[in-house]
Amino acid sequence: MIINLLKHTMVALVMLLPFSAEAANSRSQDHSMHPVYSGYEFGKDAKVIDFAVQPLAVPIGVTAEVMKRDTILRKALGELGMEIRFHPFMKGADINFFLKQGDIEAATAGDMPVITAAAETDITVTALAKRGFSSIISKGHLQLSELKGLRVGFPEGSTAHYTLLIALSQYGMSDADIIMVPLNVDKLISELENGKIDAFSAYEPVPAIALAGNKDFTVIMKYLNTTYLYFSKPFIDNYREAASAILASHVRALRWMIRDKRNLLKACGWNIDAVKELSGKGMDLSVDKLAEIVRSDILNISSSPSIPQRDLADSGYVQRVFNMLKKHQKVHPSAKLEKVISSFDNSMIKEVLIHPVKFRLNDFDYK
Fold this sequence. Notes:
Blueprint: H1 21-28, E1 48-53, H2 60-68, H3 71-79, E2 83-88, H4 92-101, E3 106-110, H5 111-120, E4 123-139, E5 151-154, H6 159-170, E6 179-182, H7 188-193, E7 199-203, H8 206-213, E8 217-232, H9 233-238, H10 240-259, H11 261-279, H12 287-298, H13 309-312, H14 317-327, H15 337-342, H16 347-353
Helix pairs in contact: 2-10, 2-11, 3-10, 5-14, 10-11, 10-16, 11-12
């Protein structure tokens, strides 16, 4: 099949008009000029699958490092005349910029960026990649209400951003009650240490690193988040077999890490190296502590990373996230819940799981 108008055509066929100053600014950033991303070589034709990963997010950064080394995946794609390239990003909102440009076919990201993408472009969300917590960390404050008028850092457009919004809502507050300070995830701890912000919201491993290195830091609130594996819809529609091979690799990686602690420790070591390569800094967290976090976040999804049907039901998790994003103008006012819900598709992961021999779910070969 030929789908080669700017690779898989431009995924973002609908460009939405700006609807608030903040939303317009976040969407107008040209990440193609980013000092790291501008050096990425995305595939120019359909034979190259560009997979966006986040080394600074746990456990998905660790899972991605395992998948990068999956020789079974590379062989399966090779038989289809295809190859896969992994590109590291700071956060999901950055990934979505390149997804809309048509540069990215597959990615893992948290609830806010995925549901935003589902509302604004054509994607297919195929599997869970994490069930774990984001946390709001403060220095010298014990209650969220104490942060009124103070500076709170967060990675914009991320699952931690959503955590902050939902936490404020539960305390009868809004983002107007605090000073919102968008920061890259690797800057959050140092900005709080230096007094440039008064608190931050982040996903793991940042909270664990912050608490380990700063005895005066406190967890104000924790919120359970979900992270997903998703694809551009044109890619799924035209290369379903390749997408299934990637899903199988995702399942293998989860099973391999849970199977033996030595595997998990090795994967965490790979991730620590990837973090240093992306950010230029090491991770101030032991391999054992990182492994503990990863195991906790993937334990409940390692056997079956299917998206729970209850999450897609009326008043379910996806609808709650969508409603919160719409309330805070993080998606266009015309965005439809029906479009978001229809972007979630469990059929592919179910097909992979019921054919473990065909997809070699219990064979492992990492190099």
